[in-house]
Amino acid sequence: MALTGRLMKSPCITLSSSATTLHDIASNFHKGVAKVVLKKGKTQLFREGSPMVYSGAIDRIIGRPPPKTGDVVLVADGMEKPIGWGLYNSVSMFCVRLMQLEEEAAGDPSCALNVEKLLETRIHAAVQLRKSLGLPSANTNAYRLVNSEGDRLSGLIIDIFGDIAVIASSAAWVEKYKSQIKSCIHRLDGIRYISWRPSIEILKEEGLDLSDPKDIDPSTPLERTKVMENGVTYSISLEGQKTGFYIDQRENRQFISKISDGQRVLDVCCYTGGFALNAAHGGAMNVTGVDTSLPALELANRNIILNNLDPERVSFLRRDASDFMKDAASRNESWDIVILDPPKLAPRRKVLKSASGMYRNLNSLAMRLTKKGGLLMTCSCSGAMTQSGMLLRILQDAASTAGRKVTVLRQAGAACDHPIDPSYPEGAYLSNILLRVL
Fold it and tell me: Is residue 275 within 8 Å of residue 256, measured between CB atoms?
């Protein structure tokens, strides 16, 4: 399916020939635009591209009446000279999400202070970037189209599953401009359905309490759909974790398929079988997947059938990860390749200490099940853990506890359709580390 963007006809501000700065452009607004003035010494951080203007960086707000959540505002230095513009939030610790800097506005004034035009432009750029990355392709139609700050639309995530776009919202401005975003996505060739999935808990911190967490177009098919990734077919649930499928691990799953020929493979916390199916697709001799979720395992078993795999060679068990690994270790079982991809154990930095113990214990058990000289692919999807830089130290401690020695063979993160803005390193959340276990 080719995904291309058609230009939207959105209302634009009529600019005079001399309107070359944000100040000039703002003067064309009949209601005026409030100005968020930064404290001394805080300007450079945002000039360099950091998209989140936190409350502690703000000195004062100029404008009457004061801006409301979702309003367009100018962001200015201590001399009240605009450095950019963004969208305001009266409740969140992130008071402004910067959308465009002064220099960009001067170069492309059609987007300046115009959210609809900016959405059109940024989403079109996202489509072109994925096209340059080979997405979609004949063997992959599941991928991320918009990755929040990485595509300069902070708080907006859009995943594509064939002809379905799943939109995950985690910012108040996204909810305010919901109809415009949906209209923009509907105008993309190849998209027939949209599923809107607000992040309820995060949006509460944004000042929104949404009573109905789901919004699926009436024409959307049943909650399950089929997608293809690297030639492997999956039945996925639009009601499942995240947006329905962990597309961020696509390249890491493909790597597993390349090293699994003739191997015995264990996939712990397998969800719907992504790594397990790739191992089988790559010629693994035997594959076992373990998870506690019955709905996920039902899909995993369905995926065995969809891919014409031998159920004698690929099997899924409903077990607690720790209990399964302890029992297997007590029987001295071992596998050539073990994959450990637990859920988010450290959703916030304040629980990092307790989560570290859980990561250590799980990895210690996984190392005990990896045959000497075998491989362990271990993962963390907790941004707090990835950004802390602690994971390798924890893995070393786990190896010591297990009485094993490890070496690092490969370190990776999310797939290339999950770009990260270096001025906002908090966007990095996935760690995928391949270890040799001795």
Answer: yes
Q: Is the Cβ–Cβ distance between 204 and 215 less than 8 Å?
A: no
- Predicted pLDDT of residue 32: 77
Q: What is the pLDDT of residue 220?
A: 57
Of 27 and 113, the structure prediction assigns the larger pLDDT to 113
Mean pLDDT value across residues 264-279: 97
| pLDDT tier, 4 (very low <50, low <70, confident <90, very high otherwise) | low
Query: Given this model, what pLDDT does residue 6 score?
Result: 43
Q: Is residue 295 classed as helix, strand or coil in its secondary structure?
A: helix
Does some domain include residue 291? yes
Q: What is the pTM of this model?
A: 0.91
Residues 201 and 57 in one domain: no
Which tens digit of pLDDT belongs to each residue from 84-101?
Answer: 999 999 999 999 999 999
Helix H or strand E segment including 49: none
Q: If residue 127 lies in a helix (H) or strand (E), which one and from where to where?
A: helix 115-132
Is residue 6 a part of any domain in this protein?
no
Among the listed residues 385, 392, 396, the one whose alpha carbon sits nearest the alpha carbon of residue 410: 392
Q: Where are the beta strands (DSSP E) in 112-209?
A: 142-147, 156-161, 164-169, 193-198
Q: How many CB atoms lie within 10 A of CB 399?
A: 21
Q: Please state which of the ranges 22-36, 107-121, 373-387 shows the lowest mean pLDDT.
A: 22-36
Domain that holds residue 347: 239-437
What distance in Å separates the CA atoms of residue 378 and residue 363, rounded to the nearest whole number?
7
CA distance linking residue 395 with residue 410, whole number of Å: 14
* Residues 325 and 433 grouped into a single domain: yes
Question: Quick one: what percent of the chain has pLDDT higher than 90?
Answer: 80
Structure tokens at 208: 């929104």
Pair 308, 348: CB distance under 8 Å: no
Q: What are 431's strand-pairing partners?
A: 380
How far apart (Å, rounded) are the C-alpha atoms in residues 279 and 282? 5
426 SS3 class: helix
| Number of domains within the chain | 3
Name every residue whose Cβ is closer than 8 Å to that of residue 60 and which is 6 or more positions away in sequence. Answer: 37
Positive or negative, the CA dihedral 154, 251, 143, 340 is negative
Residues whose CB falls within 8 Å of the CB of residue 292, separated by 6 or more in sequence, listed in order: 318, 319, 320, 321
